[in-house]
Design a protein that fits this description.
alpha/beta; 17 strands; 2 domains; 14 helices
């Protein structure tokens, strides 16, 4: 049974002959801009495991980059999708109201740890679309046009969100980007240029520079931040910094938007990562989520106080497919699975196991500079030297490639490309975790001999 299998490579090389043929066809059909560095073709997926056309079995530590928190092909989601599909695939919310939209909206409105808890919800198709609509709402509500984002942040590839995204390789050749987007320095404590005692004040001063050099606080509509940066290197935002953001937002009437596209749906050991914020009474005004919301079907959600969401003029937000009936059915099933299979608790267990192993590797290997994360969302930062912290992306690139050829799918991240991210489906078994740890350390050892 694939769900409980362990990684196993049957062919002499990866990709095998059948997979290689499909990959060659990909090069003829899909533009090179849709990049893929993996020798992987999926034939079947179950739990945390993938089988390719040649019978090779891979363990997935990436999960569709945070899309598959409940794993591949969960039977409860399949059942929900099949049942909805026999009724209708789609009902555009501007034309007709379908019960699934309301049912999922009510549950998310009640669960989201926003500031006032009197929430409304509307659905989109993707993370980028969710973020863009959250910004539209903030501009409508405040009557202001400017926003603040952060270094290392990733918010999408649409025109506005690629402006918001820090890494400009994602905007190559796109010319002039959107106006009114200002960037603060993210509190990346591992690479802070000041002492531990000075870090918080340093990053606060960097944020306040925006009010001095870019736009007054009274001209900012929203601050958008990931509770744990994804593409930027799996860096949790320190809670003391969140407290400062909340205080400054309140001072100037700015909305605080949490980008939980990657951190949501039990990934961090809470249903939403901002539940950690709520423990300190510093909730966001708007929460944006997507990815694992519907187990792989396109869906995103903007959640926020009804006064804020109702401020938008009719027609400014929305879209044809947002809240698709089949996707909403999947979303309801996802929440049921998270609850019934105790995946929030499981994420905490996985996180503890991984942190124990990765921190032990950090002690043993001079190339591992930092290990950090929340729950089962963990980053391992590789450096050439622990003192200078010079990034080691060459090692990470080879590690990704060599692990894939041995049956373990991992992915890089970080502003220097020197971080390995752990995002395995939360239904991964302990045996599969151990098999992954074994491949990971073995390939690391092999590479350190030659690099």
């Amino acid at each position: 049974m694939l769900k409980n299998a362990l990684p196993k490579i049957k062919t002499d090389s990866v990709p095998g002959p059948k997979a290689a043929k499909i990959i060659a066809e990909r090069l003829e059909v899909i533009p090179q801009g849709v990049r893929c560095q993996y020798p992987l073709v999926i034939e079947k997926g179950a739990g945390a495991m993938i089988e390719d056309p040649d019978g090779n079995i891979f363990l997935d530590w990436v999960g569709g980059v945070g899309v598959l928190n409940i794993g591949y092909s969960h039977p409860k989601v399949i059942e929900a999708v099949q049942e909805q599909s026999t009724k209708y695939f789609h009902a555009m919310v501007n034309i007709s109201t379908h019960p699934g939209y309301l049912a999922l909206g009510k549950r998310l409105a009640a669960l989201a740890p926003t500031r006032y808890q009197d929430n409304k919800v509307f659905f989109t198709n993707s993370g980028a679309e969710t973020i863009e609509n959250a910004v539209k709402i903030a501009k409508s509500y405040t009557g202001r046009q400017n926003i603040i984002v952060f270094s290392g942040g990733f918010h999408g590839r649409t025109y506005l969100t690629m402006t918001m995204t820090s890494k400009k390789a994602y905007a190559a050749g796109q010319g002039t980007l959107a106006n009114g987007v200002f960037r603060a320095e993210f509190p990346y404590y591992y690479r802070s240029p000041v002492s531990k005692a000075e870090r918080l004040a340093y990053y606060q001063s960097k944020f306040e520079k925006i009010f001095e050099e870019c736009a007054a606080g009274t001209e900012i509509a929203a601050v958008i931040i990931e509770p744990l940066q994804g593409e930027g290197g799996f860096i949790p935002v320190p809670i003391d910094y969140v407290k400062i953001l909340r205080k400054m937002c309140d001072q100037y009437g700015i909305l605080l938007i949490a980008d939980e596209v990657q951190t949501g749906f039990a990934r961090t050991g809470k249903l939403f990562a901002t539940e950690y914020w709520a423990e300190y009474d510093v909730q966001p005004d708007i929460l944006a989520c997507a990815k694992s919301i519907a187990a792989g079907l396109p869906l995103g959600a903007v959640i926020g106080n009804r006064e804020i969401l109702d401020s938008v003029p009719a027609g400014v937000v929305g879209g044809t497919y947002g809240g698709n009936a089949v996707a909403c059915a999947a979303g309801l099933a996802v929440l049921d699975v998270i609850e019934s299979e105790k995946l929030i608790e499981r994420a905490q267990e996985i996180g503890k196991k991984c942190m124990t192993v990765f921190q032990q590797l950090q002690q043993e290997y001079s190339v591992i500079g930092d290990v950090r994360g929340l729950g089962a969302m963990i980053g391992i930062e590789f450096v050439k030297d622990k003192q200078t912290k010079v990034p080691f992306p060459e090692l990470v690139n080879q590690l990704v490639e060599n692990c894939a050829k041995s049956g373990l799918i991992i992915e890089s991240a970080g502003i220097y490309g020197n971080v390995i991210r752990f995002l395995a489906p939360l239904v991964i078994t302990d045996e599969q975790l151990e098999a992954g740890f074994e491949i990971f350390e073995k390939k690391l050892n092999e590479l350190l001999v030659v690099l």
